[in-house]
Amino acid sequence: MTFSDLGLRDALLNKCESLDYSEPTPIQEQAIPVVLDGADLIGCAETGTGKTAAFLLPIIQRLAARNKPGVKVLIVAPTRELVMQIEQEYIKFANKKMRCVSIIGGASMNRQLNALRRGVNVIIATPGRLLDHVKRGTVNLATVDTLVLDEADRMLDMGFLPAIKEILSNVPSKRQTLLFSATISDSIKTLAYSMMDDPEVIEVSRQNRTARTVNQVAYPVATASKTALLLDLLETNNFEKVLVFTRTKRGADRIAHILTARELRANRIHSNLSQSQRERALKNFKIGKTRILVATDIASRGIDVDSVSHVINYDVPEAPEDYVHRVGRTGRAGNEGQAITLVTPNEELAMRGIERLTEQKVDRVVLPDFNGNGPMGLLNGSGKQNRSNGFKKKRSGRAFRSRRSRK
Ligand code: ADP
Ligand code: MG
Q1: Residue 366 C-alpha to ligand 1 middle, in angstroms?
Q2: How far is the CA of 7 from the centre of ligand 1 (A)?
Q3: E strand or H helix at 387, and its extent?
Q4: What fold, for 3-203?
Q5: pTM for this prediction
Q6: For residues 322 and 275, what is the distance between their CA atoms, to the nearest angstrom?
């Protein structure tokens, strides 16, 4: 299957080729013809599967054909980073006449107002700042005919349901609506069916390229040894580009601080930082200036950094879906990735919930120095020489055997 089989025209096909999008991903294959047709759509596929282009390419093609003034397309996403990523992808594919503005908090209001005054066809926005503009009368959504809610599950998690409802009351009821989500819960379904007209549902099952290229392992660890184990992993292995996840912003600050004090090139990203701090953290991580980025779930969601070599879950996420998202940050675009999870006895239950959701057992590898059971350094006072070889060889007899279901 090629992009031209999906009904895209030459201008876009050329861009796909020059950007090395040689063939459509499964969600793109299924969604693009539906969106080109003008139908409503619910699209569900894991993070990193190309959902952005799945809606942007057909939207751009339809926009080029209409060539009318006014705001035609409204794309809403939960975080500033996601809005900026969508905007970057839009700029890659759209021609310059199809003007676009991103509307996000923490960024210059003047730039947004100037762009709006000049006239735009496409708005990509976070819900809060968009509604600020609507209330001030600086954005008029009355001409919108295509509405996209991206990462709808995360928007609900973040409490944006009232904001979404308010946005819906400001766009015409006759429109095309597209909803994308990495997971489909009951609340997503309720929202979707309340705002859509007989939507087509496209669900790309979980077994995709991303997941199969990630090697997953869990280390049972005593709560008091978590930080020591993290340091050991980062100091004895030459992991290239590491995302460390913590449950709280404070935890992210604390870990980043400790790592920096140990002269590891680390930084953190979470929603209490300013927009420019977050952008800088992300950029430095992308270009390799920072080796380790410590992140919370919300800040990391959908962040598109290629070539993350390792994801380390310092804390087991409470929501099993977050595990899927976190681990989806590595093993992208066919690269190999490693996901390491530190599991305290208190977190074991959450870890099992994750295994149930993913239908995949994760190997438990017991490191006697850190799990609170083994005598410290039983063998020549140090367990270190083992660990420096990477974790694959260290399966102890008691370790959980892998029973990965290959569906
Ligand atoms: P999602 O929204 O599903 O998390 P993205 O749209 O952010 O995924 O895409 C993930 C990455 O894959 C991006 O870097 C994007 O440029 C790239 N990508 C998307 N579609 C293709 C394709 N057909 N071929 C190659 N790369 C692609
Ligand atoms: Mg996305």
Answers
A1: 36
A2: 19
A3: helix 384-387
A4: Rossmann fold (3.40.50)
A5: 0.62
A6: 23
